[in-house]
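Quick entry, no commentary yet.
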Amino acid sequence: MNSVIIYTTNSCPYCVAAKALLNQHALSYQEIDVAQDTQNFQQMMDLTNQRTVPQIIIDGVHIGGHRELSRYFVKSPLKTA
């Protein structure tokens, strides 16, 4: 089982695309909306050194955004349940 966290906002099309990609690979994830919560936003920045969304963390490793997630699946496909 993989631990997946995705930092998002409601208005981000890349967030929607990243979640769709995770769903396509049958991976569950914890979504953390940073739009209205400065504490969540600060947590995301502390973990990733990034200010943009989405930011994806898999098994404690920062993957990056949607583009990096797409590349990640090509390089090392995640094992699903």
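second:
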Amino acid sequence: MILRCILAIVLVGLAFSSVAHAQVPSPSPTETATGFDPVQATKAWLDTVPADQRAKSNAYFEGGYWLLLWNFLVAAVIAIFLLASKLSARLRDFAERMTKFKTLQVAIYTVCFLLIVAALGFPLTLYEDFIREHQYGFATQTFAPWFAQQLTGLMVGLIAGVVAVSILYAVFRRAPRTWWIWGTLVTVVLSFLGNFIAPVYVEPLFNTYKPLTDPKIRDPILAMAQANQIPVKQVFEVDASRQTTRVSANVAGILGTTRIALNDNLLTRCTLPEIREVMAHEMGHYVLNHGGKLTIYLGVVALFGFAFARFVFDRAVRRWGEKWRVRGIDDPAGLPLLMLIFVTFTFLTTPVQNSIVRTTEREADQFGINTSREPDGACKVALKLGAYRKLDPTPLEEFIFFDHPSGRARIQMAMDWKAAHLPCPNLDAPEPATD
């Protein structure tokens, strides 16, 4: 988790099975919009979750608040250690002895740097991604395959990290005064390329994607895709159950790499109305161009991050650069300082970044329910996701820690939609035949 966090910062600025089938009575054919209370309906859905399961999901999600802090602190300690011990400067010296080419020096340094960060951060990664996930019943892998996938992720991270850092340091060398502006542009471009490459070349390294063959599930999904002009002819099934019990799906890719995929947990744990609602939500991200919008929105955040980095980096080097043996912004030995600055900036702007993502998720929710017309399916899915997301947080919690709308917010929206479309009890029923 620490390594993934650092790589993300480099690119941006360097199940409740019982709840799964819980049933809430649908309104009778005589219910009308005035006789259906969305607030009471929302409460009825939330009340289907037993107290012990609610306590478990709350404990899991609230534990994530502390993990957010611990990830920041561990990353900060690693960065300070690399600077104060002069290990970063020694790695730089080693790279300079290996070659005279600046780009190769940065590449060699980056490989060593990322390996050290991964090794020092591994205990927290082990707890966060393996031990804790098993404690709460979300992980299905034993240690050996989990560790093998961590190594695969490390290799991908090394390649992506070397490319990204090498490009950024080339910018630093050529634009020593305006590097923070050009660095932001590079970040946006790299993010765009990542969205293009990941669905085709990265995600298949961790899971097997195969065409979904069940026409009862496949055809309604393709029909929604066609109606919304999504250029796909297949739906893919992902074997996520060998790793986790979580349900998930996505519509990913751009410029010919677009792909609709849903994991096998979604197929086995959800009904067709629920699957339709989930897939409609994911299609909403594509149709509403959330990938491009988030790249721009978070690029603006990255611009502030780079400006903050420029302000802090220059002053820190003037005060401690000689002690750390860091020469300037174009010196790879200063990468831990940039890491420290960016993890601090990212930590402090967590509510801002979460709010940006949460807004797009809310838009996708609205698109999904209008497309699928499955308000009850939306509620059931929200309860399933409530296994690892707190269902009913305080407004402050939701603002700071939630990058998706809370379960209560999602259910309330679904019930408001349902109230607006009553009295028809079957929203997808055809019109009666006339003589």
